[in-house]
Specification:
- This protein is α+β, with helices and mostly antiparallel strands.
- The protein has 2 domains: 9-281 and 473-531, 3-Layer(bba) Sandwich (FAD/NAD(P)-binding domain), CATH 3.50.50.60; 286-469, Flavocytochrome C3, Chain A, domain 1, CATH 3.90.700.10.
- The chain is 30% helix and 20% strand.
- The protein is built from 16 helices and 21 strands.
- The protein has helices spanning 19-30, 61-65, 72-83, 89-107, 144-147, 158-163, 173-187, 240-246, 265-272, 322-336, 349-355, 367-372, 381-388, 392-408, 420-424, 515-531; strands at residues 9-15, 35-38, 55-56, 116-117, 136-138, 142-143, 170-171, 191-194, 197-205, 208-216, 219-231, 277-278, 283-290, 296-298, 306-308, 342-348, 375-378, 460-472, 475-476, 483-485, 491-497.
- The strands form 5 sheets. Strands 1, 2, 8, 9, 10, 11, 20 and 21 form an 8-stranded mixed β-sheet that branches. Strands 13, 14, 15, 16, 17 and 18 form a 6-stranded antiparallel β-sheet that branches. A 3-stranded antiparallel β-sheet has the order 3-5-4.
- Helix 1 (19-30) packs parallel to helix 16, helix 4 crosses helix 16 (515-531) and helix 13 crosses helix 14 (392-408).
- The longest helix has 19 residues, at 89-107.
Length: 536
């Protein structure tokens, strides 16, 4: 939309251009509704663009095409068990009934094409009906050439943003999903995207939301919506003030891997309109490895080494699903009085020889990590303990205990290497070659449990792990139609929410790969169906 084009009235206004925003916008526009999607930053995609774009959609056709387990009722039992919250069961049922249908609809559009199933185990392997192959589907890659000018509209990768890495001529993962959704939305002929356009407030008349005020290029805009407004602008992970108000962890947002524009604008607008909220103390917590530039990037898949806290002690299965590790870091920080928002990944030369650090295994530890101090090096564990500020005797005892587990193949403390998720990193459940996890190579055949590799070959190293997130999780309370609710449970007419702007159907847990983006897309889609008078 150009500067001189008049902002008038639309059928639907969508705030935010991540997975939920763009899918909601596409759903509305594909049904002939004149739809405006406003994006605060100069690129579209939000946190979704950073992601692998997994979508946890039990029952979806791509899972059937892969001849994988695809029992919807088993998935429902699993979801009920791990979330264990009766108040969220209507949201769960709406999610399960919609995800597969949404994929069916998107696959009819050539801009999306076919999705694929890749086996990623459900995260709570001990829960009833947990699937070792999971229920996650992914979009196919798309070339920048195919997207044309629109490829430049899509947010790039974290590595490209932070380090100037060329993302290459192919958009994969979340960037592929966003690029495809953007092209499909605009190709309807009923869709408009306004970048560099920030939500300021909702226009409310007689208790009904009828539009938004927004800031663009130094001017304030008043834009009306005949059918409704969908808030899908991410969480408040980048707002120190909101995190201080609702969370007790001292996090400022600097360690977040959520989109840089996610400062809670939509949450605050909803609150001003009388919305109720839930779970504002929550986030999709993840561990992050501090990079040579001093900031972390979300980490998953520790194969060797151990993580120790400020007392030099292990405190978690380092290879467990990332959200579970992140939540354990948060819990211990709150409950023990010991700092667990920052800890140390200790490993030895054998790890460096096998896995490298910061790059391909054959290149060893990347020089920038040592030169910047992101990885510290010492000839002995005692010296390393002094460098990273943990008790030397405790670190030595922790390493001795872990090495004992390595010799027997059983981690008696945290059961590392025993779950399908852990074992995935050794291709018991595998990823295709393009997935970055695949660089980790093959197991060491002489080890009883290849995820328990002893620390015994000097020199020793330590990297820093901090408590990050891929977005806050709490937000506006919604019903199964994605309508925003007041404190008394009544819907605010004309107002909908999805993604991290809304409190999730999964409550405080992360059931499987693709739950956040899957939820965002489902409830963005359901919001648009409601505005199109196609409520399911």
């Amino acid at each position: 939309m150009g500067k001189d084009e008049a902002y008038d009235t639309y059928d639907v206004i969508v705030v935010g251009s991540g997975g939920g925003g763009l899918i909601g916008a596409y759903t509305a526009a594909a049904r002939g509704l004149k739809t405006l999607c406003i994006e605060k930053t100069d690129v579209v995609g939000g946190t979704t663009a950073y992601s692998g774009a997994g979508l946890w959609f039990p029952g979806a056709a791509p899972i059937d095409r892969a001849d994988a387990e695809n029992d919807m009722e088993a998935a429902r039992r699993y979801l009920r068990a791990v979330v264990d919250d009766q108040d969220r069961e209507r949201l769960q049922d709406a999610y399960l009934s919609t995800g597969a249908r949404l994929i069916d609809e998107l696959e009819q559009n050539p801009h999306f094409g076919e999705f694929t199933h890749q086996p990623v185990p459900d995260y709570f392997h001990e829960a009833p009906d947990a699937s070792p192959a999971g229920h996650t589907v992914f979009p196919r890659d798309v070339s920048a050439e195919e997207l044309g000018e629109l490829a430049g509209w899509v947010r790039t990768t974290i590595y490209a943003e932070r380090f100037g890495v060329d993302p290459g001529p192919v958009l994969s993962g979340g960037r592929a999903l966003i690029g495809r959704a953007l092209a499909a939305f605009l190709d309807t002929g009923h869709g408009t995207v306004a970048r560099n356009t920030a939500l300021e407030s909702l226009i409310v008349e007689d208790g009904k939301v009828v539009g938004v005020t927004a800031a663009q290029d130094g001017r304030q805009l008043r834009i009306r919506a005949r059918r409704g407004v969908l808030l899908a602008a991410g969480g408040f992970e980048r707002s120190k003030e909101l995190r201080d108000e609702h969370q007790r962890l001292g996090l400022t947002g600097e360690w977040s891997n959520g989109g840089p524009g996610n400062t809670g604008d939509a949450l605050l607008a909803g609150l001003a309109a009388g919305a109720d909220t839930q779970l504002l103390d929550e986030a999709w917590f993840v561990p992050g490895v501090v990079q040579p530039d001093g900031l972390p990037i979300f980490h998953s898949g520790t194969r060797s080494g151990i993580w120790v806290n400020a007392e030099g002690e292990r405190f978690v299965n380092e290879t467990a699903p990332y959200d579970q590790v992140g939540h354990e870091m948060a819990r211990l920080h709150r409950d023990t009085g010991v700092n667990h928002t920052s800890c140390h990944w200790v490993f030895d030369q054998a790890h460096a020889d096998r896995d490298g650090f910061g790059g391909p295994p054959e290149e060893g530890i990347q020089p920038s990590w040592l030169e910047s101090g992101a990885v510290r090096r010492a000839e002995t564990l005692e010296e390393l303990a002094q460098i990273i500020g943990v008790p030397a005797k405790a670190l030595a005892a922790t390493v001795e205990e872990f090495n004992g587990y390595a010799s027997t193949g059983v981690d008696e403390k945290f059961q590392r290497g025993q779950s399908p998720w852990d074992q995935m990193y050794f291709h018991i459940v595998g990823f295709p070659a393009r997935n970055p996890l695949n660089y980790m190579g093959k197991p060491s055949p002489h080890l009883t449990n290849p995820l328990l590799m002893p620390l015994e070959k000097p020199p020793y190293y330590a990297a820093r792990i901090v408590l990050g997130d891929i977005g806050t999780k709490g937000g506006l309370r919604i019903d199964e139609h994605a309508r925003v609710l007041r404190h008394d449970g009544s819907p605010i007419e004309g107002l909908y929410a999805a993604g991290n702007t809304a409190a999730p159907m999964s409550g405080r847990v992360y059931p499987g790969a693709g739950t956040p983006i899957g939820s965002s897309m489902v409830f963005g889609h359901r919001a648009a169906l409601g505005m199109a008078d196609e409520v399911h």
